[in-house]
ABC transporter permease (Tannerella sp. oral taxon BU063 isolate Cell 1/3), 110 residues
Amino acid sequence: MKGKAFPKALYYTVASFTVVIVLWQVAIMVWRPGDFLLPSPLAVLRALVAWVVDGTLALGLRDSLGRFVVGYSAAVAVGVAFGLLLGLCNSLFRYAYPLIQLVRPIAPVA
């Protein structure tokens, strides 16, 4: 049973991407917005290949991942320090608790 579910899921994935790309190309052909506003799928593919070949994509990924690691590390350091401080100082916890409850409903992914 599981063997047949994967190809069906793969079919839906490929079909959905194909539909989006076809609609994208149709929109380009109908409205002709220009490459600056909305490039065609082929123009995007060409740019991607050019970025991979000349190394621009790798440099951009390196820079972005570096910023992510620095930001995440800073957030962990501040969060752990703040958590320890709140855990050790009960009066500070009572002051901060309403603010913590205010932001608690925000999804952790956000």
Q: What stands out?
A: The chain has a mean pLDDT of 93.
